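Two entries, shown back to back:
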Amino acid sequence: MSRSSVLITPSILSADLGHLQDEIESVKDHADWLQIDVMDGHFVPNLSFGAPVVKCLKTRLPIDVHLMVSNPSDRIGEFQKLHVKHITFHAEAVQDSKARRALLQAIRKSGATAGIALNPETPLTKIEDSFDDIDLLLVMSVHPGFGGQGFIAEVLAKVSEAHAKRPGLMIQMDGGVDQETAVACRSAGATNLVAGNFIFSAKDRAKAISQLRG
């Protein structure tokens, strides 16, 4: 698969935060996007980055913000002036269909493309009312909140289902993505692979990213 057909998005959650800028420099010429995981300690038990970290990053890579928060509508404003590429929120955090559509619109007004994430146990039918309105579907292949978890292969059926319904939709997968699981992800129809531990634990980041591309 060519570089143009699958995007590789390193997640800085697994980077050495004490040398974050150096870590970003190590992937800038090889990756396509850079993911920032925003955790609130409520939707997921962990806490992580926010807009101040994004503001301090020096990179030409498009920033992909993954909101793992209970109140995503209250957090969009933080990123409005930061020119992020993409913002994803969780379907589990926004249950009402009208509220989801309004949030998708608000994200686009901020200048970013908009996506919805599904936890491993959440079926695609959960967002059938807004499936045609999203720019990206994020299928979690681990339970959100912590890096280094094992890949949940059962979610691949969800990816295949989404790809069949909207062949042109960008489908992102996040969690336990490595050289082996990336093959299954790409085969199922994923077009954007998020990897943290596999990339940032590798001595040769360029090689790791190339392996994910296949």
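entry 2 starts here
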Amino acid sequence: MRVAVIGGTGMLGVPLCEVLAARGHEVRALSRSSTTFPVDLSTGAGLRDALAGCDAVVDASNGRGRAAQTVLVDGSRRLVEAEAAEGIRHHVVVSIVGCDQVPSFSYYRAKVAQEGTVRTGEVPWTVVRATQFHGFVDMVFGAVAKAGLRLSSGVALAPVDVREVCDALAEVTEGPGEGRTLDIAGPDAVPIRDLARAWHRATGRGRVPLRVPTWGPTGRALREGALVSAAPYARGKVDFGSWLERTYA
């Protein structure tokens, strides 16, 4: 089958394209920076041409700050409309485990709105929610460590290896769009403070603990496990410690 990957040059898009190609599919990596299939979700430019002849689309796009609404929500509407016009049979959108339980995070609100746009569109769909990628957790800890700090919180995360997310995404994409929401999670739910300690041991950075308060409804949701999944569709096997060993060996 021919699969278009929106955001095909990003942290998730690049390995996803590799996994899909290894499974025998023809893959188109779509992004603003692509020299072959340049598209812009904020305007819709290039979408119809890039989607022509495709069977399925995986939306791994990203948009931060003010771009979140423009790219994730308005862009999804443009994308789904273009897919309907081109006869796409399956739209897979990548989202975040627990995004609907933590509405105080503006990015999570945008992801929930993006999911809603897909669910009400004309193209058969699947929403795939993933927990935090190991690389994303590493990036957050690295940013905090610039001040010599490391996060300390009892809130649990279940970091997942991006390659394992790609394997599950490819499997889902090969099937029909049945209007399902599926979770992909890492092997273990681990408090942030323990993940940060492991990161400190691996990198030697972030010596001073920084306690992260969890107040109000958002704090309650986080403490109750909003960002992990009790019964995911797929559970990875690579834990954060193993990823750290491989990355910082």
